[in-house]
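Interim report, section 4.2 (structural modelling).
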Amino acid sequence: MNYKRYILAFIITSAIFATAILISNKLNADKLMQVRAIEDKMSIDILSLETQFDLLQELSCEQIGNSTILSSELSNLASKLSYMEEQRGADDSEVIRLKRRYSLLQIKDLLLMKRVSDKCNIKPTVVLYFYSNKGDCSSCKRQGYVLTKLAEDYSDNLRIYAFDANLDLSVLKTLININNVTKELPALVINGKTYYGFKSLDDMHKLLPELADIEESGKVSGTSDPVADTPE
Amino acid sequence: MLPFGAMSVDTAVVYVLLYLSLYFEVFLLISFIAHKNTLSKTTHKTKCTYYPSTTIIVPCYNEEKTLAGTLRSLLALDYPQDKLSIVVVNDGSKDKTQQIAEEFASQYQQIKVLSKENGGKASAMNMAIAQCKTELVGCLDADSFVSPNALKLISAKFAESSDISAVTPAIMIHNPTNALQYMQRAEYMVGIFMKKAFSIIDSIIVTPGPFSIFRTEHILALSPNASEVWQHAHGTEDFEMGLRLQSNFKKIANEPLAQVHTISPNTLYSLYRQRLRWVYGFLMNAYDYKHMIGNHKYGNVGMFILPTALLGVFGAVYMFGLLIFNILKGTFNLLERVLTTGMHVSWPNLELFYINTNAMLFIVISLLAILLLILHNSALLSGVKVHKRDTALYLLLYGFVSPLWLTSALARALIGAESKWRVIR
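Predicted structure of the assembly:
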């Protein structure tokens, strides 16, 4: 037996393996960088809007309306983050870090939107969704499907914010506390009231009667919205 | 960051199997490259100066359709007539095999016909070899056709060393007509490289039915008597012969320019039946020769080829099982989604971001790239062009069809091995 040949084959094979892993890591790191860049851009956008809001109390509602559309950005971010979570696993530290920032951005968007609605006297339809993907929430996946469908159908009129309840983020814990969400997941907060357990499309329509009004007034649009694409 | 952080067991097993597959390919390729120069010298410069007397046995069972072609190809061999005997053994055929064989025998003195009750290929071969007095003896299945220069090249190979006990040819597919046969043509092309590479590391473990030629005295010396040279060996006497020669430290050479064309199964079922027999035969013979596995005494065969081939069968079955599991899981998810929110089509996102950049994908690409390099070398070795269509079909189909017989053969072998073990106990 020619041991040198076995060793050479080992070196070459390991080199090919290592190269494949390195290329994959480099490309994945680039993708995470892209996600980070979107988050950076969004945080600047939100900050800028808040500042604008503070600076110009007299800003007309029409002007604000035009500048608060973060939906598509948030949706793009959610779907990319969801993809990276699928690829790298929910335990990946970088994915968790990006998810935490994403949750923070959602909360900021939520608060800003509340300020806008108070000022402009509009009543947006808001759903807060708390989920877990640690295997302890059997119906979270299906709830995700329902919310994604709703977000697609009512992209302009329905704002869904999805939160991984297991994320270690103090502001998220506060949000969970002020909405009295217990550990029973999935949990949905609709118009300030908390609902537990799986809610089907029909249930959701009953809980959100305003969706029927939207449908009747023919405002339903087909573009996709924020957050329901979030890691399920 | 390594992708092994929080890896599941099944993913880890897939990585290990991919590593071993890659290692196997790389090892054979570097062994081949290391001998490439010497190879080309032998094949192109060697001339036949001595023509050893040779008997070619043609065992037949209901071969009326192909026997004439097989015999004509043997008669067309570029080899001295007085040095070549052809023995047709009719193994109890129920068709016109006997009549065709006798017609040929009446016209050509070289051809002799033996007849017996049906008893299988090994018994037919044994009947002929018992009467064989030539230096070399070989077999040509009656569904195969040999190139005119094949025997001359094989004789030249024998002349290289008196240690050589057997020489195997390059086997190719005869006139393929459908996708399954084109796929097999590419598979057989890969086989040409594999056999050459195996011969370089003295590790050929099978002497295939179509035109493997043996030094008569060597195989007689390794057999209890002349009527038991070929064993039934679970329906694969060619595996048993290969392993018997290897276990007795005999040399098996390969001559890729000596080409034999064989008729291949043209339906999935017939292919499945053929391969089931081969893989089951391989597993059972490997079991019978288990003392060689992992045994340093048997060199590359014991330490590398046999363990890798066995692991390959298990690995392919495992990967296929995982694939089926993932397909079922995907289907279940889709069904769950449809049941939850109804039918709605969402187009896949074509943004660059969503292109798969998993390490596993790059490893599979490397494996396929080396496979293409292997095919290229097969073409160089045999002087036969590899068709792009064949390669495409091979890459597309083989991974899906081969697990059918691998799984079935493994299951049967495990049950068989267990029942054998029970008997022993």
